[in-house]
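Handout, section B. The chain below has 235 residues.
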Amino acid sequence: MPSTLTGLIIFVLLLVPGFVFQRRRARDRPAAEETALQEALTILFTGLLLDGLGLAAVSGLWALIPGSAVDLSKLVLGPSAYLAAHPARLLGWSAAVLGIAVVVGYLAAGRRVQALVRRTTRRTASTEPHASAWWLLFEEHPASVPVHVGCYLTDGGYLSGRLHSYSRVGKESGDRELTLRDEITYREPGEDSAARVLNNVGAVSISARSIQFLTVTYLAPPPETPAQEPEKADS
């Protein structure tokens, strides 16, 4: 561990990209029950990797801007003296490395990038060790594919709509919830008629405790609207 305040600040800043990556990744993945040591090591190694990528990117910029490079050998051998001699240069490039590492970490942890990684490595959502049952169903296809969910409730009712959000907790529990949006349809318990659309209702929340079982339909992505060519003026 760093023995000075400056070293401690630098050490913490080096971990920021790893922390950002893990927090962003946790938004879309089932939460794993990790110990404090496992979580700390994940942040440490991920942060160092992202910092290395940021340093590599900045090193490429040094070649494009003559006289702006940081002498890493002098920095390692005498950090205090080098910082005193080139404070603006060192702080500016350090901020650039940190900024690049944070941005790369945030983007790499996004759903679309993770879905691309799964497709490239031929992995599926079912390979996630901490995934819940409905996470597997909802994440089996890329995020661009809309998901329609039908919930058969424990009281005999039925509720359906387009998936809006759901709990990422990996542990199967009745305390989890999911939300539906767009056109919400509902059939009351004991009714034999088709489910009816709930007027003036844009979204609904359902507790897992109230769901007997659910069905998932993967809808076709909305077609892209072709760009219209500008009309030619009459000559």
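Note. The first helix runs from residue 5 to 26. Compare this with the example in section A.
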